[in-house]
């Protein structure tokens, strides 16, 4: 399984765009990149998934360069409620999704 | 609400007691997973089922842990002779085979405190 590296923590202010980058140098050809969000005392929540280029949904955008060795989760105009831990995972439909420690995002007023 | 239900939400027990947790996955999902999460860490994989078959168990799943999914629907996770180190959040997730991207949907978890 490809190991991922992401910042331990990030701070932002309400209304700003937040970009969280994840490195996955050993990503395999068939691996997908998935991001989850987790609030305290809740289970992780699926945000977005992609394979290459750019994916956008109502919550976020995911940018994946051509070499796929990294990916960037972009959260537009964050609010206080976006304060959470964000996990980047790389796997091909494998049962044992490997979560790292994630990135703790704190949005300040 | 993801559609994955876990019961109970909180469990306090004394060391040495047995506990059982239940997970009800999204109805059409045939894969079901159990994870454990401790404070400040990401979820750690424990085991998973496809329908009623338990296909993989992590080394984290000691002999005191057992999971079942008897009819391929709900699942139970039992911990026997609990230890203080078992205190954690136990998360259940489900997904649909055929979705090779394996998007897992998580329940809210059961928080276990062993005194």
Report a brief summary of the structure.
The complex is a heterodimer of chains A (109) and B (115). With 109 residues, chain A is an all-beta fold.
Number of helices of chain B: 0
Rg of chain B, nearest Å: 13 Å
Query: Mean pLDDT of chain B, rounded to whole units?
Result: 92
Strand runs of chain B, count:
11
Individual helix count of chain A: 0
User: How is the main sheet of chain B built?
Assistant: 7 strands, mixed
Category by helix and strand content of chain A:
mainly beta
Quaternary organization: heterodimer
Key terms:
A: 109 residues, four-stranded antiparallel sheet, 9 strands, globular, B: 115 residues, 11 strands
Structure in words:
The complex is a heterodimer of chains A (109) and B (115). By secondary structure, chain A is mainly beta. Chain A has no helices and 9 strands. Chain A has strands at 9-13, 18-23, 32-38, 45-50, 53-56, 61-64, 70-75, 84-91, 103-108. Chain A has a 5-stranded mixed beta sheet, with no helix packed on it. Chain A is globular and about 40 Å long. Chain B is mainly beta and 115 residues long. Helices cover 0% and strands 49% of the residues of chain B. Chain B is built from no helices and 11 strands. In chain B, the strands form 2 sheets. In chain B, strands 2, 4, 5, 6, 9, 10 and 11 form a 7-stranded mixed beta sheet that branches. Chain B is globular and about 40 Å long. The model of chain B has no long low-confidence stretch (mean pLDDT 92). At the A-B interface, strand 4 and strand 8 of A face strand 4, strand 5, strand 9 and strand 10 of B.
Q: What is the secondary structure topology, with strand pairs?
A:
The complex is a heterodimer of chains A (about 110) and B (about 120).
Chain A: E1 9-13, E2 18-23, E3 32-38, E4 45-50, E5 53-56, E6 61-64, E7 70-75, E8 84-91, E9 103-108
Parallel strand pairs in A: 1-9
Antiparallel strand pairs in A: 2-7, 3-4, 3-8, 5-6, 6-7, 8-9
Chain B: E1 5-7, E2 10-13, E3 19-24, E4 31-37, E5 44-50, E6 53-57, E7 65-68, E8 75-79, E9 88-95, E10 105-106, E11 110-114
Parallel strand pairs in B: 2-11
Antiparallel strand pairs in B: 1-3, 3-8, 4-5, 4-9, 5-6, 7-8, 9-10, 9-11
